[in-house]
Design goal:
Blueprint: H1 4-29, H2 34-65
Helix pairs in contact: 1-2
């Protein structure tokens, strides 16, 4: 049986990673627009920290519960 907590943590990480991808894409699109770029850079850094924290929570859970191998079906 798959660990429901690990599945939730993985989903949180996946969402944060997608949010980070969007923030970095926005940052790339604002190259050359100094004011908007700096604001987007701060936002991307905040999202990167969120992504890192969700990844750490998932890794910690896997280490504590030995449930990294989730059922695939």
């Amino acid at each position: 049986m798959a660990c429901s907590t690990a599945a939730i943590l993985f989903d949180n990480y996946a969402k944060a990673a997608m949010e980070y991808f969007g923030a970095t894409e926005e940052l790339a699109n604002l190259a050359g627009q100094h004011g908007k770029f700096e604001e987007a850079k701060k936002h991307a850094e905040q999202i990167r920290e969120k992504c890192s924290a969700t990844r750490q929570a998932l890794e910690h859970h896997w280490a504590q519960h030995s449930c990294r191998e989730m059922d695939s079906g």
